[in-house]
Structures are given as C-alpha cells and as structure tokens.
Amino acid sequence: MDDLQKAIENISPLSAESLPPFLQAWKYWVVPKDQLLVREHTVSDYIYFIKKGVARIYYHKNEKEITEWVAMDKQFFLSITSFFQRQPSHLIIQALEPSEVYGIHHNDLMTLADQYHDVERLLRKMVTGSLILSQIRMDSIQFETAHQRYERLLNNSPQIIQRVPLSYIASFLGVTLETLSRIRSGK
Fold first, then answer.
1. For residue 4, which of 126, 158, 124 has the smallest C-alpha distance?
2. How many helices and strands (H and E) does the chain possess?
3. How far is it, in rounded angstroms, from Cα 137 to Cα 144?
4. For the whole prediction, is pTM greater than 0.70?
5. How wide is the angle at C-alpha 69 spanned by C-alphas 165 and 53, nearest 5°?
C-alpha cells in the first residue's frame, strides 16, 4: 500500500482524517498474465493502480486490436468514459504480465469525495491529469512523426520494449509493425 499512498500524495495529499478511509476502500488483487480487468461491453467499476506489472487498454476496430494505453508499474489507469458515465465500455483492460493491482470502486470513491473535500480535490486532479495525458497523446499523433513518437515513448518508458509485445507498441504509436521495425533498425 506504500506505493499507492506515495502515488496519491504525489497527486494531492490527503488529510489524516480522510487518508485512512480512502486507503481502506482500495481492494488488492494479484492478477495473472492475460486476465481481463475490464471486458468489452461491461461497465468499468474501478480506477486501478498497478503496483507492479503491465496492463494494456485496447479496443477492437475493423477486426483489429488497437492499443490505446499501456500502464506500467506505479501508474493509475481506467476506462474513463465508462467509469464516470456508468455505461458499458468499448475498451478492454488486460494484464500483459502477472501484476499486483489495487482498485477503488466507483461508489466508494464518489461517497468519499462527497464526504471529504480533499478526496474530491484528488479526484479532480486525477481527471485533469488524465485529460492532459490524452491531449498530449492526440498532439503527438497529429504533430509528431512516427520516429518522434517512438523516441518520446522510449524516453517516458524505457523498459516498455522489454515488457510489451512490439505489435502492441506499434498499435499504440499508430504505425504498422513493419514501420516500427524500420524505426528501430535505424537506431
């Protein structure tokens, strides 16, 4: 729970009053490789924190799997639209390796946010951070070359190449596997 608490404090520290009930609301799972945390067409009930491991968020389009995000050690992740709108998700979240995952249920988080102003502030900052990451990703796809996107990915997550299949990385970068191979061979 120390990693989770540190990650929370880095976003927005909680008071001595709200921190214990907030941390108690999180569930802990050991998730085997390939297990789905969110299935397509189901409501995503949790915000997740991956203590150790890798999770892929993806969707199906034209009979292909499109990787939208990869979460690695000590990162939060979720299907944001499904979680907040309480509607079935088009996203699928899958563990890519055995993982240790925490999750807080939507109902628990909303109850705590109603009860504690600092939990509400934490939630706001988490959502803001997620929106900023989404905008950075969109800007990257629109304004950077495939090589620049690959370099950014390596700078932000250097271990991703060893832990995530190249086909998923290519999909995340918006390129074909062949293009990614050419980019990598040019290094």
1. 126
2. 9, 8
3. 10
4. yes
5. 60
User: Would you write out the chain's pLDDT as a tens digit for each of its 187 residues?
Assistant: 699 999 999 999 999 999 999 999 999 999 999 999 999 999 999 999 999 999 999 999 999 999 999 999 999 999 999 999 999 999 999 999 999 999 999 999 999 999 999 999 999 999 999 999 999 989 998 999 999 999 999 999 999 999 999 999 999 999 999 999 999 987 5
Contact predicate 46/101, CB 8 Å:
no
Distance from C-alpha of 10 to C-alpha of 103, rounded to nearest angstrom: 18
Residue with tokens 């390596």: 154
Nearest Cα to Cα of residue 175 among 83, 93, 99, 66: 66
Amino acid code (one letter) for 174: G
Phi, psi of 51 (to 5 degrees): -65, -45
Angle at 6 between CA 107 and CA 104, to 5 degrees: 15
